[in-house]
Write a structure and sequence with these properties.
Order of helices and strands: HHHEEHHHHEEHHHEEHHHHH
Number of helices: 15
Strand content: 5-15%
Distance between the termini: 25 Å
Largest sheet: 2 strands, antiparallel
Radius of gyration: 30 Å
Structural class: mainly alpha
């Protein structure tokens, strides 16, 4: 009786935990939609826009016809255009805010003192001539962005900036000095501040470029991604078939099954905003969770680190039907992909889609084939063959499979292609034996 009471209490606590977790997730998604900041947030907004558009199109097609339907679709397009314009305005604001944060972070890192743990176990900090130089440049740059200063205060800041950049004689410093003299002359003439905003922005931009130059700020050399040698930029340049530009290899995002260089990241992002509008946030977190779990095994698991969010989405939706193979639970936030046989590394042919609770119970099984029974095991093996057939086309995985894996001599169901490429969520029509009662 006490065990039953404890079980009921545990179930109530678990349901309460799930409810709070769902409320927290929904609140977080709502916050991300209302105040998007990064690329992932805007992908979520565009995905919500696409879902709304599809729902409206289905409603129009079901309720209207003829000229009335065309007029309704045209109105829907106008409304969608206005929403896209609103999203783009938010995107510009977020980009500007992100730029300010990046500038501040760069200046803070340059001016940060060197830190290490001393022999006594206490942290030790020390300023070097380079960090002190960076700190002075940071203070000068921050003073340039100050608002509501008097004319005398602004002239003192410009004089200090002029003395700083005149230490070096080059085209950049000459341009900065010329702009400083121009603003000082306009201030003496009583020009209004709103008419000087463009000139002040140019001064700040050029001075930031001055700060990012390792010749003037040696500490910046440790933070810049662009190599100092311009000749190295000529290597690894590829042609983008979307925008027609020649770009470095870092501007291209390659999938695991890519064999040629396609479009750059900007072209793919633009295509995603205008046409695909997919949201991979759930599968991105799932991928990170699987990777952290695999790292805990410490058995040199590698395959999961070769897959992307799109690969994981294909595996979960097209092969496993986006539902738990045991309970048919469809909430993707409660699902995870764990090892089928925990003695072998995770792979598309050694995994199973379960809920988090089912996964914890499954991880305790040493021999899953004996625990689940032959019928259920056969169903899982079919899924493994489907995953192996699809992911074998990826160059890296194909080489790995040829070196480490033996071929699986198990026939595929007659309609396996429909499951792999039809995008079905359930096993409608799949010639697999039904899960027998008591298979668990």
């Amino acid at each position: 009786y006490q065990r039953r009471v404890r079980g009921i209490e545990w179930e109530k606590k678990e349901e309460e935990r799930k409810r709070k977790e769902k409320e927290r997730r929904l609140k977080e998604e709502y916050q991300r939609r209302m105040q998007p900041l990064g690329k992932e947030d805007f992908d979520l907004v565009y995905h919500a826009l696409e879902l709304w558009r599809r729902e409206e199109v289905e409603n129009i097609n079901a309720t209207k016809s003829g000229p009335e339907r065309k007029a309704a679709l045209a109105g829907l397009m106008d409304e969608e255009t206005q929403l896209i314009a609103s999203i783009q305005r938010h995107k510009l604001i977020a980009k500007s805010e992100l730029g300010r944060k990046n500038k501040k972070g760069f200046l803070d890192k340059c001016a940060a003192p060197k830190e290490w743990i001393g022999f006594d176990g206490m942290p030790t900090k020390m300023d070097t001539p380079y960090t002190m130089r960076a700190k002075d440049l940071k203070m000068t740059y921050e003073s340039l962005d100050k608002r509501y200063l008097t004319r005398e205060e602004r002239l003192d800041i410009l004089l200090q900036l002029k003395l700083t950049v005149k230490e070096h004689d080059c085209k950049l410093t000459k341009d900065i000095v010329e702009l400083i003299d121009r603003e000082a002359d306009l201030l003496m003439r009583g020009t209004k501040e709103k008419n000087l905003e463009g000139l002040r922005q140019r001064i700040s931009t050029l001075f930031l470029q001055y700060i990012k130059t390792p010749l003037f700020n040696p500490e910046a050399a440790n933070l810049l991604k662009v190599p100092e040698d311009p000749s190295s930029l000529r290597k690894n340049i590829y042609y983008c078939r979307g925008c027609g530009n020649y770009l470095p290899s870092t501007d291209f995002e390659l999938t695991t099954n890519a064999r040629t260089i396609g479009r750059c990241r900007k072209c793919k992002d633009l295509d995603g905003e205008g046409r695909l509008r997919e949201d991979f946030s759930r599968y991105r977190s799932l991928l990170q969770s699987i990777r952290s779990t695999e790292e805990s095994y410490s058995d040199e698991s590698r395959i999961i680190f070769l897959l992307t969010e799109a690969d994981l989405r294909y595996l979960a939706e097209n092969i496993w039907g986006a539902q738990s193979v045991l309970s048919q639970w469809e909430d993707t936030y409660d699902l995870t992909l764990v090892r089928w046989n925990k003695r072998k590394e995770w792979s598309p042919w050694n995994c199973i889609l379960l809920t988090n609770e089912e996964a914890r119970a499954h991880s305790k099984l040493s021999k899953p084939e004996e625990a689940y029974g032959s019928v259920f095991t056969q169903k899982v093996k079919y899924r493994h063959i489907l995953g192996k057939q699809h992911f074998a086309s990826m160059p890296k995985l194909a080489d790995y499979m040829n070196r480490n894996l033996k071929s699986v001599n198990m026939p595929l169901p007659s309609n396996a292609d429909k499951v792999m490429f039809g995008g079905r969520k359930k096993d409608d029509g799949l010639s697999l034996p039904p899960l027998a009662e008591g298979a668990m």
